[in-house]
Amino acid sequence: MKQYTLLIGGEHVATSHHAPVANPSSGDVVGYMPLGSEADLDRAVAAATEAFKIWSQVSNEERASACRAVAEKINEHAEELAQILTREQGKPLNGLGSRFEIGGALAWTRHTAELDLPVEVLQDDNEGRVELHRKPIGVVGSITPWNWPVMIACWHIVPAVRAGNTVVIKPSPLTPLSTIRLVEIMNEVLPPGVVNIITGENNIGAALSAHPGIAKMTFTGSTETGKKVMASAVATLKRLTLELGGNDAGIVLPDADPKAIVEGLFWGAFINNGQTCAALKRLYVHDSIYEEVCRGLADYASKIAVGDGLDETSILGPIQNEMQFNKVRELVDDARANGGRILTGGAPMDRPGYFYPITLVADVDHGVRLVDEEQFGPALPIIRYSNVDEVIARANQNPAGLGGSVWSADAQKAKRYAMQLECGSVWINKHGTIQPNAPFGGVKQSGMGVEFGAEGLKEFTTIQTVLS
Ligand code: NAD
User: How far apart, in Å, are the Cα atoms of 325 and each of 178, 271, 282, 335, 367?
Assistant: First the structure.
C-alpha cells in the first residue's frame, strides 16, 4: 500500500512515521498518510516564505495563466483524483459524489483563474489622485475538513495563489490522500514553494494556525475548531476567513406543491449524505401539506441506492467516519426517545462500514437535539408549523447562520420571507446550490468572511492606498 509523502518547496519529504487511512465502506487501508512534525511545518512555512518573495512580484497575467495550468492538470487527473477520493472519503464515484466533486474543483479553479482585482482610482482631480491597490498578504495557512476535501482545498489554494500569496495546506487526517495528490499535480505547473502540504494529526492544525510565519488563515471546519483557530490568530493578528458549521432551515410555505419540491428538498438535505456545511438540516413544513411532503420524501428516499462508493450503481455511500456515525445514531435515537416518528431508516445498516440509511424523522420540534444541533449526516428532522411569520422567527433561534431556503409557488413571496432569515445565503425553491461567482459565507457562528468570486478573492489581499 502506498506511503505518501509531504510536499515542501517542490520536493517530496518523507516522514519517519505514517498513519493508515481507511475506506469507510469497508475499513480497508487505502494508503498511509505521512505524520509531519512541527519541524516539517517550520520547513513548509520557510519554503512558502521564500517563494512569496518571487510569487508576489510576478505579473498578474502570469499568475492567471498559472491558475489556468492548474485547472488543466486537475482535468487531466480527474478520474485518478476521484478514485482516491472515493476510497478515502467513501462518497460514490457517481451521483453527486467524487466525479461531481472533482468537476466542481475544476469549475472553481477555472473561474478563479479569470478573476481580476484591478487598481481602483478613487479620486483623480486637481486636489490629487487616490488609488486603491490590492496586495497579497503573505503565507496563507489552509485547514480543510473531510467532507469535500478536494473541492474545498481548491477554494482555499486557488484564490490565494491567484492573488499572489503562497500556501501551506493541512487537510483533515481522515481524508488527506486526495489533497496530497492534488498538491503534487499542482506542483507540476507552479513554482516550488508556492503550494506546500503538511499532514498529520490535529496538533499540526493547531501549530499551523498559531505559526508566526503565517499571515492569514483560511479555515473550513466545525465552529468549535474555528474558535480555536481564531484564538490562535490573536498573537500575530492573522487575517481570517472562517467557514464553519451550519444548521440550515428550509421552510415550506402552505402554497408549495409537494410533488414539485420533493426532489429539491431531498437533495438539499442529503447531498453527500448530509455531510455538507450548507445542507438543509431542519425542515419546517406547513401543517396543511405536512403529511404529503413527509410521504413524498419517504417515497423518494426509497428509490436511492446506498452502497459502497466504488460500486458504480451507488448514489449515496457510508458516513465518513466513526465519530460522525456515532453522532448521527445518537441524535436519531434521542429524537425517537423524544417522540420523533421515524418515516424511514432510523438504525445502522446491517453490513460492515459506517453505513447509516437515509433517515426522516417527523413530529420533532425545537428542544430535540436533532433539530437544535448540526447532525452532519443522513438524518433529517421535519418540523410542523402553522404560522409563517412565527416560523421564520423560530428558524432564526439558532446560533448558526450559514444558509436557508423558502419553498413556495410564489417566488416573490418566498423571497420576502427568505430575506428575513439570518444567514449568509438564501435559496428559493432550492437549497445549497453554490456557484463560483456567488459569494458564500456564514453569519453568526457559521463564520466570517466569504469565499468565491471577486469578494472571495479580496479576502486574500490587503488594501494599499496610494495618495499623490
Ligand atoms: P473539524 O473542525 O473537526 O476539523 C476541520 C479541520 O481542522 C481538520 O483538518 C482538523 O484536523 C483541523 N483541526 C482539528 N483541531 C484543530 C485545532 N485545534 N486547530 C486547528 N485545526 C484543527 O471539522 P470536520 O469534522 O472535519 O468538518 C465538519 C464541519 O465542517 C461541520 O461542522 C461542517 O458544517 C463544517 N464545514 C463548513 C463548511 C463551510 O463552508 N461553512 C464547509 C465544509 C464543512
Answer: 22, 16, 19, 16, 22
Under 8 Å between Cβ of 206 and 228: yes
- The rounded Å distance from CA 254 to ligand 1 centre is 37
One DSSP character per residue, 424-452 reads SEEEES------TTS-B---GGGEES-BS
H-assigned helices in 56-97? 60-76, 78-89
User: Which pLDDT does position 336 carry in this prediction?
Assistant: 98
Give the tens place of pLDDT for each residue, 254-275: 999 999 999 999 999 999 999 9
* Domains of the chain, CATH where assigned: 6-244+443-467 (3.40.605.10), 248-428 (3.40.309.10)
Which ligand 1 atom is the nearest neighbour of the CA of 224? 2
- Pocket residues for ligand 1 (CB within 6 Å)? 143-147, 170-173, 202, 205-206, 209, 220-222, 225, 228-229, 243-246, 277, 374, 376, 402, 442, 447
Decide the pairing of beta strands 447-448 and 239-243. antiparallel
Task: Name the phi and psi angles at 134, rounded to 5.
Answer: -105, 120
Assess contact for 143 and 176: CB atoms under 8 A. Answer: no
Cα gap 202→212, rounded to integer Å:
18
- Report the predicted TM-score, pTM, of the whole model to 2 decimal places: 0.97
